[in-house]
Design brief:
alpha+beta, protein kinase activity, MitoQC_Scaffold_Kinases
């Protein structure tokens, strides 16, 4: 039974850890659980954005992958939806801030 995700689905997902399991040039990946299907592992892909304005004002593209095998290539995905992403889930924001401070020294 293939699940379909929409913006209404975002609140049903919970990250299994607070840190990304994979960081790629175009996205950051997290493992997650889905309240309506708690025995299946999921991956959440948050696409990077080049926008310099306040991140929480913009929508970020997300992808969800159902049923992660042990040696899964997490950069594959199925099912797409849009949702607001909290700034704390965007690790490159912290990297940019650190980089700016170091350049000014």
């Amino acid at each position: 039974d293939h699940l379909r995700f929409g913006t209404h689905s975002w609140s049903h997902f919970r990250l299994t850890t607070g840190k990304p399991c994979c960081e790629a040039g175009d996205a950051v990946y997290y493992t997650a659980s889905y309240a309506k299907d708690p025995l299946v592992s999921y991956a959440i892909k948050i696409c990077r954005s080049d926008m310099n304005d306040t991140q929480q004002q913009f929508f970020h593209s997300l992808a969800v992958r159902q049923s992660l095998p042990v040696h899964f290539n997490i950069q594959q995905d199925c099912g797409h939806f849009l949702a607001d992403v909290p700034v704390r889930m965007l690790p490159w924001e912290e990297e940019d801030e650190d980089g700016e401070e170091n350049e000014g020294d």
